[in-house]
Design goal:
Layout (H helix, E strand, L loop, with lengths): L4 E12 L2 E12 L7 H30 L11
Antiparallel strand pairs: 1-2
Length: 78
């Protein structure tokens, strides 16, 4: 893996399929390790980001499901 990696996640409120939602955008900067191409490095990092965002979506959806019907609940236990 590369020595230097940084990323920024921005969060934007969006309407998705007519419902309120959130759009997350992650941008990254990474050094390409010796022996790898830019494409290989970006593919790896994008796969990692997609996995992280999928996990975040799963947790968020679980929290919403647990809180539905409990509008006064500020926190959900997972």
């Amino acid at each position: 893996m590369s020595q230097n990696y940084s990323s920024v996640i921005t969060v934007h409120p969006e309407t998705i399929d007519g419902r309120p939602g959130t759009l997350l955008v992650e941008t990254f900067t990474v050094d390409v390790p010796e022996g790898n191409t830019i494409e290989e490095t970006c593919y790896f990092i994008q796969a990692l980001i997609n996995c992280n965002l999928k996990c975040l979506a799963d947790v968020s959806e679980k929290i919403v499901a647990l809180n539905s019907g409990h509008s006064n609940t500020a926190e959900a236990k997972l």
